[in-house]
Amino acid sequence: MDESFFVLVVLYAKAGREVELREKLKDIVGPSRRDAGNLRYELFGQQDDPRRFIFVEHWESPQAQEAHHTGTEHIRRFQEEGGDAVERVELFYRMQSLA
């Protein structure tokens, strides 16, 4: 059975901090794509709501995603320097493909 799985994250910027958050999120995309076990890492912005950002991720394993999320310098730096621009995380889904 394929152990790979997907992550879907939707978050909102604090009002007036949309541009700042967009740039901080864009900064983590390149390094995240190079993380061990990453198969896909994309950042989207909602066209009709500049405060909403969506990540679509595909990882070889849950362990690879966990290592990315808890053990990489670029995520740690974002949490320290950019995390305060996030108003809320609307959803954080960990999913496995069924078909």
UniProtKB/TrEMBL annotation:
One matching Pfam family: ABM
Domain of life per record: Bacteria
Organism of this sequence: Cupriavidus pinatubonensis
InterPro entries assigned to the protein according to its UniProt record, in alphabetical order: ABM_dom (IPR007138), AI-2_Isomerase_LsrG (IPR050744), Dimeric_a/b-barrel (IPR011008)
The name this protein goes by in its record: ABM domain-containing protein
Coiled coil ranges: none
Domain ABM, residue spans: 5-95
